[in-house]
UniProtKB/TrEMBL annotation:
Fibronectin type III-like domain mapped to chain residues: 653-722
Name of the protein this chain belongs to: Periplasmic beta-glucosidase
Coiled-coil ranges (or none): none
KW Hydrolase (keyword) present: yes
Recorded GO MF terms: beta-glucosidase activity
GO BP terms, alphabetized: glucan catabolic process
Subcellular location(s) of the protein: Periplasm
GO cellular component, one term: periplasmic space
Primary location group: periplasm
């Protein structure tokens, strides 16, 4: 590769090199071409390195032809897109996928996404998003794997392996792009794009590992984030992009900015377009997404001695290497196979996987009196603004989804249940009382019809429709665009309009099942107290409706576990289980003690802890068995626990292992996830689940940022969630 690129770069003018750093959208295509006339002339002039959000082999072929037939050096273009949780076959939103805790499955979903997207002409995806988030006000918590460092790191790896496979140059793989580097999920106040200010200690121990895990798995590109980090925005942050990423982590792939992030440095207050482009290039950015700051100013900066030719060469080389790795120099049209596009999208196998993934992502939050599963008989009323909207099922960041042809919840349920169950349905309530908020929350074709009559009239009609039903399924919560980018919220309750409906449904005395759509943890204290069954379904993707039917009617036993803490109220945020103890912790049984760390008005407990999720069956954990009480640094400690399925259904359980370092040279979290296993256990049967702990699991970054372990006592906890655990102690000795 080196020689090929050296020779190519020798032929390139400085303008052509800068052209490679330019990633553009196709622009509104005018007559005759697949790109705008402006883009067409830039391709011919060698001023474009990549295009994003253009799909279909025929269009991509035409654009590629412009590059390889009409530009001087015939350098192919790279084609990227946001393939986040599926391409045409849409899987659950990433937070939902994380709730499956099923690594194999997650890798398979990324594999399918890569197969479909590459069949449609693409070779680069802007995924995985691995930003840790502990503040559910931030709408983009939906796009990541939640609050936990270990779980997110495991998932990051699987996603990369799924996208890139074992050979990036194959025509059915995509180059992964880990984003948003870095710390985007720690935006102050949960407001999107907001500042992040964080100690290095927290950064290294809690926020950076998932990005590193994606790179260790081989991710060949990185996207810089929009946010400010300790005074220097990520897209101009030399420490982040060069000292950490290139020098410490030895990353040798491509660094691209987020959308117009270079230009946004102007509003961050770093200077004019020429200045911020210079800063960004020098910091370590290779490719400028959409803003054309690089294209329009770098030559001038070079002439004025503000940037060097070496800096431009470095960036250009990384872009060309990415193209080389994808095999584009060998065959620029390798992703342009019309036949594949016809055969490999939305296949029955892909849809089957989507249905399985959705069913596994659902988290059963409450189920009293065996309300669930339901019997396949009689009449079921499915009521609520999320009942009849196919367009909202894929969830946020599913730009390539076919919204028109996605089944709604009711359609999906009907297709599974056939004549066995009579499903009646009604809107029941508007998504929110505020039409303007509804409009902001249903953008990009995810419309939900509004009924402009009084809420009393709408509810009365819904009750009339439900009159003969034995059970009511309340399909409530968020619309898909209530989470995702630029969708932060300060109120995490189910909107008032829907709450009134839910109250009225509960009042009927019929069993009510809340099927909750959500892109983030919501605050559900009223619901937890009053509704007999709550199934959190996030946004399950293309097969949501069928998968909900599978779970509600017992063909699938729910096994999802929360990848993020659900608070009691928004005032508890940011909230996460792996907190520090403080010098004044609360006594275990108390919820308020004067001069202790707590609130006057609400306990410190979450509503549902991290890792929580019920099943139709019950799992019982035996006390832990440790093979020994001490380990040295080269030892492994084997820990076993017996898990018994004591209930009436076969089912899967996610057995979770947490560690606590009891005494250390610096404060350590009260618990940290360090292992988990998802096991299938038949009713009445037991399984012994074994874990091994080694020194590696006990390490942390100290104040000097050395990754070390310290001898001393540790606790190990194993259980069904981060709260309900069995515990034991062991010691690490030198
Ligand atoms: C902005 C988003 O922050 C990022 O996640 C996405 O990949 C780009 N836009 C491109 O669409």
């Amino acid at each position: 590769m080196g020689k090929f690129i050296d020779e190519l770069m020798e032929k390139m003018t400085i303008e052509e090199k800068i052209g490679q750093l330019n990633l553009v959208t196709a622009g509104e295509a005018t007559t005759g071409s697949v790109v705008s006339t402006d883009v067409e002339s830039k391709i011919k002039a060698g001023n474009i390195g990549g295009i994003f959000s253009m799909t279909s082999p025929s269009r991509i072929r035409k654009a590629q032809e412009l590059a390889v037939n009409q530009s001087r050096l015939k350098i192919p273009i790279i084609f990227g897109m946001d393939v986040i949780h599926g391409y045409k076959t849409i899987f659950p939103i990433p937070l939902g996928l994380a709730a499956t805790w099923d690594m194999n499955l997650i890798q398979k979903t990324a594999r399918v996404a890569a197969t479909e997207a590459s069949a449609d002409g693409l070779n680069w995806t802007f995924s995985p998003m691995v930003d840790i988030s502990r503040d559910a006000r931030w709408g983009r918590i939906s796009e990541g794997s939640g609050e936990d460092t270990y779980l997110s790191s495991r998932i990051a790896k699987e996603m990369v392996l799924g996208y890139q496979g074992d050979d990036l140059s194959k025509n059915n793989t995509l180059m992964a792009c880990v984003k948003h580097f870095a710390l985007y999920g720690a935006a102050e106040s949960g407001r999107d794009y907001n500042t992040t200010d964080m100690s290095l200690h927290r950064m290294y121990n809690e926020y950076l590992p998932p990005y590193k895990a994606a790179l260790d798995a081989g991710a060949m590109s990185v996207m810089t984030s929009f946010n400010d980090i300790n005074g220097v925005p990520a897209s101009a942050n030399h420490w982040l992009l060069t000292d950490l990423l290139r020098k410490d982590w030895k990353f040798n792939g491509l660094v691209v900015t987020d959308y117009t992030a270079v230009n946004e440095l102007i509003d961050h207050g770093l200077g004019d377009l020429q200045k911020v482009s210079e800063l960004s290039l020098k910091a370590g950015v290779d490719m400028d997404m959409v803003g054309e700051g690089f294209l329009t100013t770098l030559k001038k900066s070079l002439d004025e001695g503000k940037v060097s030719e070496e800096e431009i060469n470095r960036a250009c080389r990384y872009v060309l290497e990415a193209k080389y790795r994808l095999g584009l120099f060998e065959d620029p049209f390798k992703y342009c196979d019309e036949d594949r596009a016809k055969k490999e999208l939305l296949t029955p196998a892909h849809l089957k996987l989507a249905r399985e993934a959705a069913g596994k992502s659902f988290v059963l939050l409450k189920n009293v009196n065996h309300t669930l599963p339901l019997k396949k008989q009689g009449t079921v009323a499915v009521i609520g603004p999320l009942a009849n909207t196919g367009a909202n099922m894929p969830g946020t960041w599913s730009v390539s989804a076919d919204l028109e042809n996605t089944q709604s919840l009711v359609e999906g349920m009907r297709s599974v249940l056939g004549d066995k169950v009579d499903i009646v349905t009604h809107l029941g309530a508007n998504l929110t009382d505020d039409p303007a908020l509804q409009e902001r929350s249903t953008m990009f074709g995810r419309t939900i019809p509004r009924d402009n009559r009084s809420f009393e009239a709408i509810i009365a009609e819904a009750l009339e429709v439900s009159k003969n039903a034995e059970v009511i399924v309340a399909a409530l919560g968020e619309s898909s665009e209530m989470s995702g980018e630029s969708s932060s919220l300060t109120d995490l309750n189910i909107p008032e309009s829907q709450k009134r409906l839910l109250e009225a449904l509960v009042k009927t005395g019929k069993p009510v099942v809340l099927v909750l759509f959500a892109g983030r943890p919501l605050t559900l204290t009223w619901e937890q107290e009053h509704v007999p069954a709550i199934l959190n379904v996030w946004f399950g993707g293309t097969e949501t409706g069928k998968a909900v039917a599978d779970v509600l009617f017992g063909d699938v036993n729910p096994s999802g576990k929360l990848p993020a803490t659900f608070p009691q109220n928004v005032g508890q945020l940011p909230m996460y289980y792996s907190q520090k103890n403080t010098g004044r912790p609360l006594a275990k049984s108390a919820w308020f003690q004067k001069f202790r760390s707590n609130y006057l008005d609400v306990s410190n407990e979450p509503l549902y802890p991290f890792g929580f999720g019920l099943s139709y069956t019950e799992f019982e954990y035996s006390p832990l068995k440790l093979e020994k009480a001490t380990i040295n640094k080269s030892d492994k400690l084997r820990i076993t626990v017996q898990v018994k399925n004591n209930g009436q259904y076969n089912g899967e359980e996610v057995v979770q292992l947490y560690i606590q370092d009891l005494v250390a040279s610096q404060t350590r979290p009260v618990k940290e996830l360090k292992g988990f296993q998802k096991v299938w256990i038949e009713k009445g049967k037991s399984k012994t689940v074994a874990f091994e702990i080694s020194e590696e699991d006990l390490k942390f970054y100290n104040q000097k940022l050395d990754f070390i372990s310290e001898p001393g006592k540790f606790k190990v906890y194993i259980g069904t969630n981060s709260r309900d655990v069995q515990e034991a102690e062991f010691e690490l000795i030198d």
